[in-house]
Amino acid sequence: MADSSAPTRVMMAVNESSLKGYPHPSISCRTAFDWTLSKLVRSNPGGFHFLFLHIQVPDEDGFDDMDSIYASPDDFHQMKQRDKIRGLHLLEYFVNQCHQLGIKCEAWIRHGDPKEVICNEVKRVQPDLLVVGSRGLGPFQRVFVGTVSEFCVKHAECPVITIKRKATEAPQDPVDD
Amino acid sequence: MADSSAPTRVMMAVNESSLKGYPHPSISCRTAFDWTLSKLVRSNPGGFHFLFLHIQVPDEDGFDDMDSIYASPDDFHQMKQRDKIRGLHLLEYFVNQCHQLGIKCEAWIRHGDPKEVICNEVKRVQPDLLVVGSRGLGPFQRVFVGTVSEFCVKHAECPVITIKRKATEAPQDPVDD
User: Fold this and answer.
1) Where does the record place the UspA domain (chains A, B) (predicted)?
2) Please, are residues B169 and B133 in contact by the beta-carbon 8 Å criterion?
């Protein structure tokens, strides 16, 4: 069973934390990443190639700018630049980690509805595996799986692994991440 | 990143083929097993420990005996023995493959409703990962995910990977497997 074949291409959708803010990754995507490293990659960094996809949702990203005044096209341009920089900082976190561990990776940003963009990118990039984190309600409760992960399991054209956030890591408001 | 930690414990629910019959594994669970070997285990057999769970559904297994006459408790006993042997032969297929590849494994049989038994066994055995195969309707169609895999993604208390059967491997009647 020599590892002569091409590395396993693992696509991972990552997003910002709604609590800690810029440039922290969300609890669930960090959990999913750490789990994938320790339980799948293990001692075999050359066997895996990570593909980090960050999707910026236009409405959501504009939230912080609610009180801003947009008086000219330049203002919108600046906002877009700021969003882009936030996204790049988020991706930097994951790319740095891979770099330190000797795992090859790529990272990019897309805009739109996360669940649709993820499935479209799976179709385009054809990874071997899609990893999606999800918020959960703890080990002994009925578990709620977010619509994004549920949609991906049904529609993505590759195997999908769903990793729930640990109950101990859930914030006070489980909608936060 | 030395592999000093305990092996990743991968639970896999396996079932008989509805087409090829005894003792063949279903297309979807064989696909899921082969995928897990080539894409996750790769060249690291010592890093993984497989846990094969076969669930026998009382009604389904009795189907072949529809025309039999059950005249005494012994008849039922014999039927149960036959079911057990079928189940053991199925598990033997997976245990043999692991043995050849040098992967540690365990295998056992349970009775009941597959989706509930799987989630209960996850709670009891606490694997790192649950692998479930599912029937799919091909890469360019909307994909149908069986209720078992869907239920497990929502309710199993560990990360779950859903692996869809390849469209090219789907039998004429996609309900078959």
Assistant:
1) 29-164
2) no
